[in-house]
Amino acid sequence: MFDIGFWELSVIALVALVVIGPERLPRVARTVGRWVGHGRKLLANVKADIDKEIKADELKEIMQKQMQQMNPLHEVIEETQKDLSEVKRSSEKAVNDAKNTFEDREIPGAEK
Fold first, then answer.
1. Mapping DSSP to helix (H, G, I), strand (E, B) and coil, where does residue 62 land?
2. What is the Cα–Cα distance from 47 to 56, expressed in whole angstroms?
3. Dihedral in degrees, nearest 10, Cα atoms 70, 75, 80, 81
4. pLDDT at position 52, please?
5. Which of 16, 45, 46, 53 is deepest in the core (most CB within 10 A)?
6. Which intervals of the chain are annotated as region Disordered (predicted)?
7. ∠ at Cα 96 (92, 99), nearest 5°?
8. Are 16 and 28 in contact (CB under 8 A)?
9. First-residue to last-residue Cα distance in the chain
10. What does the DSSP assignment read for 22-35?
11. What is the Cβ-side half-sphere exposure of residue 16, based on CA atoms within 13 angstroms?
């Protein structure tokens, strides 16, 4: 981000010593250090939040892709269920027709 080397920090420290004075310089340096620490924590939190959002978006994309891939599977399952229900209905109809046929048939020697 910022490219501050040793010589730049030395010039800043020298100017601060001249402007602020030797009595107040430690207190100002401590305050500046505290603010820099708070700034770093804030940047780390923002970075972590952005990373979480990016990961959440990636997971959403992966889930959508998998749902699109599974869609034909759901269609096959639904078609199979429909076919099974048709077979069940037709077999029940055949059984009922057979029962009706045998019930209507007269058996020789049997009394009603």
1. helix
2. 14
3. 100
4. 95
5. 16
6. 79-112
7. 140
8. yes
9. 103
10. TTTHHHHHHHHHHH
11. 14
